[in-house]
Amino acid sequence: MAQHERLVVIGAGPAGYTAALYASRASLSPLVFEGLQPGGQLTITTDVDNYPGFPAGILGPELMEKMRRQAERFGTRFVLGEITRVDLSRRPFQLWQDDQLFTADAVIVATGASAKWLGIASEQAYRGKGVSACATCDGFFFRGVELAVVGGGDTAVEEATFLTKFATKVTIVHRRGELRASKIMQDRARANPKIEYAWNSVVDEVLGDGKTVTGLKLRSTTDGATRVLPVSGLFMGIGHEPNTAVFKGQLEMNEVGYLKTRAPSSATSVKGVFAAGDVADPSYRQAVSAAGSGCVAAIDAERFLGEHATENWD
C-alpha cells in the first residue's frame, strides 16, 4: 500500500535540507529522501570557510549535520536511501524506493550534481589532501604553491584562471594538443602568465607523502612516455554530472541533464514539481546558492499546495 505525503523532498544537501526546514516551518511535514550520501558533496569536504555565519569556518559534515538537525527540529522526517523510479505523469505523483511506493502532492528535486573524477585509486586516497573538484571552495588553501588542473574545456580553464589568484603556477593537463574551451576562455588563459600546459598528457597517478599531494605521474597520449610534474594540488576540471537519470523523459532538461526551471521560480516543466540546488544550477554550484534555492523551492511548493486542491491541479 502506498504511503501518501503532501510534500516529498528528494535529496539532502544544502538545498534539500533548507527546503525541508522552510517546508516544515510551514507545517507541511516534508518527507526527505536523503539518498546514499546524506548531506551531499559537503560531507566529503573538509574546511568550509565561505558559508556565511561561521567566521572561523566549519567542517562540511558538521555543517550538514547542523542543517539536518535544524530541519528535524520543526518536524521534517527522513528516509535513508534513493528514489529509484518516478511517475510524474499522474496525480498524486508516484515515487518508488525500490519496491516501496510513495505518493506525493508536490515534490522538490534536490538531488545535486556529482563532480567527474579520473577514477584512479591515488586520486581517491588524496581527496581532501590536495585533490579537489572545486577551485572556488578550496583554492584559498593553496597560496604560493604550484597546482594542476585536469581537463581542456571551459570548466578547466575557468578553474585554472581562478586558481592563479593564489598559486604561483597552474598547469592545465589535457589529453589532447589543444583546448576544447571556447575562444574567449582560451584567449583568457593565453593572456595569463601563470598558466602553463601539459599537452597530450593524462594523470596516471597522484603522488604524495600520505598527508598531501607532492606531484603527478603523467603519461603521454602520443608515445606513452611518463614524467613527474611536481605540484601541491590537483583540481578536477572535467565537469559535473547532474543526478537526474531517474527523471529523464519526465522533466525538461538541458543538453547536459540539468533540470530547467521557470526562473525566477523553482518550477519545473511539471506543475507541482520544483527543483533546487546543483541539480538545476550548472553555473555556480555553491553551498550558499544551493541553500538559497532550497528556500525558494519550499516557498514555491507551499504556495502551490495552498492554491491547488489535489483533485483539481490543472
User: What is the succession of H and E elements?
Assistant: EHEEEHEEEEEHEHEHEHEEEEEEEH
Instruction: Name the CATH superfamily assignment of the largest domain.
Output: FAD/NAD(P)-binding domain
| Principal-axes shape call | elongated
CATH architectural designation of the largest domain: 3-Layer(bba) Sandwich
Structural class: alpha/beta
Cofactor: FAD
Organism: Anaeromyxobacter diazotrophicus
Family: Belongs to the class-II pyridine nucleotide-disulfide oxidoreductase family.
GO molecular function: thioredoxin-disulfide reductase (NADPH) activity
Provide structural commentary.
- This protein is of the alpha/beta class and 314 residues long.
- It has two domains: 3-114 and 240-307, FAD/NAD(P)-binding domain (3-Layer(bba) Sandwich), CATH 3.50.50; 117-236, FAD/NAD(P)-binding domain (3-Layer(bba) Sandwich), CATH 3.50.50.60.
- 24% of the residues lie in helices and 27% in strands.
- The radius of gyration is 21 Å and the shape is elongated.
- It starts with a strand and ends in a 7-residue tail after the last helix.
- The model has no long low-confidence stretch (mean pLDDT 93).
